[in-house]
Structure formats: structure tokens, C-alpha cells
Amino acid sequence: MSARITEADLIGSIADALQYISYYHPPDFIAAMASAYEREQSPSAKAAIAQILINSRMCATGHRPICQDTGIANVFVEVGVEARTDWTRPLQDMIDDAVRQAWMLETNPLRASVVVDPLDNRRNSGDNTPAMVQVQMVAGKDVHVTVSAKGGGSENKTQFAVLNPSASVTDWVVDRVGQMGAGWCPPGMLGIGVGGSVDKAMAMAKASLNEPIDITDLRARGPANRVEEMRLEILDRVNALGIGAQGLGGITTALDVKIATFPTHAASMPVALIPNCAATRHIDFTLAGDGPTTFAAPDLSLWPQIEGQGPIGRRLSLDDLTASTLASLSPGETLLLSGKLYTGRDAAHKRMVETLRAGDALPVDLKGRALYYVGPVDAIPGEVIGPAGPTTATRMDKFTEELLAATGLKVMIGKAERGAEAIEAIRRHGAVYMVAVGGAAYLVSQAIKAARVVAYDDLGMEAIREFTVEDMPVTVAVDTHGNSIHETGPRQWAQKWARA
User: Contact, 35 vs 219, CB < 8 A?
Assistant: First the structure.
């Protein structure tokens, strides 16, 4: 009789897996990104991919998170119907213990991003619980577990529709990706679920993102069925959109496309599309009753050696942001920022705007200053701040006009595009929007030389901080005239694809 699969083995293995994926990209993802880097022709996109790869190697050696958004824990459990366990508690409770253990590890604390009440005060759980758990009973005596960490930027771009059975899934996916913008931090994966019910399609799309990247092998051997034909067609058409890395314009937007199908109602065709970002993080393991799983570190030779790893770009002082200096900046230009800046995300923006509407003074003076949209990971001994990459800027769009008009703020830094209303406010007030690379959080944090909370400390990672930075790498995205690289870049590279 086989040994029992214990609760301790399950919890310990999941906790170790969550820590492991916080700082190790899957090897197939590194290989795909390295290939994308070699092929990329757009200078802006190539530089972004380079930062992602450099950041990834730094995290692999330093055991610190790839992205400041250490994500929601997604755990997929396949329990063999003949498995012998000593479990007496619900899987959700055991998995939540594992998440709590992983997120609060002192040597590599992860950022707690889960809020308990989505409709009311959105209080942070403090330990990133609960996990999102999917369970399936399968044949066999083992328990197979897949863990992934899914960031909010890519999750927020999820698309769903119930199409007419005669509609083209390929056309719908390409159209949706074209409208998703860059908030999901491409290049990454596209997971597609077709059929089943509404919830089944979503579950299939999410699970498909954990499959190995094999599109190059598929292209080499040729498609064997309609699903494989669709994978290749969608990949080629999505990349031909010219969106590119971080939406800056380029030839690689998606690294692979996964499609899962299931029988469905004759009158329906549910389709779910879930992207995974440049911080793709997942691993799987099997418990057979012989103890917890151990995870071997990947070979560092998997990461490419990228030339010119030092800071590249025009240096700009954040302590002297004159109108003429700002007017001289052009979309697509790379900069190295030095000086003081403030941080602030959704919760801080909401509180600042409420304060201004009440006629009160803000706790910080933003006149002529820069504001970085970031919620960093807590620091460990020896660090000024933990990984501190940008969050999606469009969430701040509705606050932009009031904040620029009332404070004299001149520079905003985030990731992805801005909406039309925000771009008009930027133009009207002679401000500039810049982007840091999503998925390069640890690399960005190395440019932060001092950090302190200066307001709203009750907001935790969303508190306003003052950073002193030195050679922080960014790209100009929207200039003082309202010109956006997220509009001109993809358009330019889509035209190049069309001429190819």
C-alpha cells in the first residue's frame, strides 16, 4: 500500500512553488523571449525586451520577484480518485495556508495584492489570500498540482463573448487583441477557451496559459488539425498588428497562442481570451506519497548574454523640469531619470482628488514634479525598496485632468497607453507621460537610491512615497503636444508588416 499524501507535503510544496515562480521564469518562456529579442527590428521594442531579459536573470540570481505585481495565486489541483491522503480540511484552506506561507517569507516577501471585499472598502487581506483554486477528480493515485501567479494588468484585459456559431473565432480574437492596448504587458501568451459554458470557457482559457510554449515546433512540423491551424493564424495576425513589446511598436506581440475546446450548446459558441504578460510565472508538480516536491534551479546559461547592459539614454533631472526641457522630449525617446519623484496609484489618486475637491491642501507638493504609478514590494535587509515596476496608467486617467490643473504636476510614469481624455489633459497642461518597462521591476528598483513613505501610510503598498532615483530607465510615451508612441509605434510597424 502506497504512503499517504500528507497535508504538510501539499502545503509545503505549493508554498515552495509559489516562491520559486516569483523569481524564475519558465525556461521555455526565456527561450521564446530570447528568440524574440534576436528577431526584433524596432529599437524601442528591442530595448524593452532586453530590459525584461536582464531583469529576469537578475531575479534568478537574486531570488527577488520578477514583477512588483506578484499576482494572485492560481492553483489547479487534479486529485486521483485512488489517491491516499491524510487531509481533513478543505483544499481551499490548505492552499491558503501555502499562499500565506509563501507571501510572508522573510527572505523574499511578496506583495499582498488581494482585497477582501471587492464592492465595499476593498481592504487588503495582508497575505494575498484567498487563492483562486480549481479542482478536478481524475484517474490515478497521485495528486497533480499546477501553480501560477497572475498579475492584475494582464487579468484586467480578459475578454469574453458568446459568438454566433457561424462567427470566426480568429477574427474575434484578433479584433479583441487590437483593442486591448498594452496594459497586459506584451510580449506574452494568449490563452483561448472555446465551447463548454461561460464558466467552462474561462476556466479552459486560464488553464491553457500553463502549457509549454511550442509554437515554433508546431510551425516546423505543420498543423495537424483545425485548432493548430488557428493557433498559427492567430499568432501571425496578432503580431502583424504591430503592437510590439510594451505597445511601443514592433514585430512580436504574442509568443504563443493556446486554444482549448469543449463540447457546447448547439446555439452557442462561448469564447474566452485571457492574456498572460511578460511576467509569465507557473510550474507544476506531482505528489505520490513520497514526500514534498523539491524544485531545482534552472541553468543560468538559459538566459542570453545581452550586450550594452549599462544605462542608455538621455539623462534628465527630475529636480529641474522646465517647460523648455519638457517641450524638447519626443515620443519613443529613451531617458535616464535622476532626482526626486513621488509615487501614487489608484487609492492615492482617489484620496488626493477628494482632498482637492474639499478645498484642502495635499500632503505633498507636486508642482513641477514627477509621479510614478507604482506599488512596490517590501524591501528586505540591504535593499532601499523591493521590486518597483510600473502599474497600468489608464486606471489613473479619470484623475489626470484635476490633478494636473490643481497641482502643476508635470511628469507621470506608468505602463501602457493613456486614453484620449488623459492625453488631452497632458497636452493642455504641457505635461509629459513616460513608461517604464512592465516586467522589469527588479531592474527598475536598482535605480532607486532612497525611499520613504510621505503620506497615506495606511494604504500600504499604495501609500505615497518619495523616491530618489539615479538613471531610472524610461521611454517618452506622450509629449507636451499630445503625440503618443502607443499610437504611432504600432501603426508604423503594422504598415511594415503589411508591406512585407
Answer: no
Annotated active-site residue 144? The verdict is no
Q: Give the model confidence (pLDDT) of 337-378 as tens digits.
A: 999 999 999 999 999 999 999 999 999 999 999 999 999 999
Q: Give residue 215's pLDDT.
A: 97
Instruction: Mention every residue, 6+ apart, whose C-beta is less than 8 A from residue 486.
Output: 181, 182, 247, 248, 416, 417, 418, 477
For residue 370, give every residue at least 6 positions away whose Cβ sits within 8 Å of its Cβ, in sequence order, or none: 318, 321, 337, 339, 341, 342, 409, 410, 411, 412, 413
pLDDT (0 to 100) of residue 310: 60
Residue 313 — left, alpha, or beta (φ > 0 → left; ψ -120 to 50 → alpha)? left
Phi/psi at 162 (5° precision): -105, 105
Residues lower than pLDDT 50 in the chain: none
Choosing from 144, 282, 349, 486, the catalytic residue is: 349
Integer Cα distance of 299 and 212 in angstroms: 18
Give the Cα separation of 149 and 15 in Å (integer): 12
Give Cβ neighbours of residue 4 (< 8 Å, ≥ 6 apart). 84, 85, 86, 289
Q: What integer pLDDT is reported at residue 498 of this predicted model?
A: 77
Cell 506622450 sits on residue: 478
pLDDT score at 168: 98
22, with CB counted inside 10 A (0-12, 13-18, 19+), is: buried
- For 49-92, what is each residue's pLDDT tens digit? 999 999 999 999 999 999 999 999 999 999 999 999 999 999 99
Which domains are assigned to the chain?
Answer: 1-149+298-309 (no CATH), 152-278 (no CATH), 314-490 (3.20.130.10)
Distances from the Cα of 399 to the Cαs of 37, 350, 357, 358, 404, in angstroms? 36, 7, 12, 15, 9
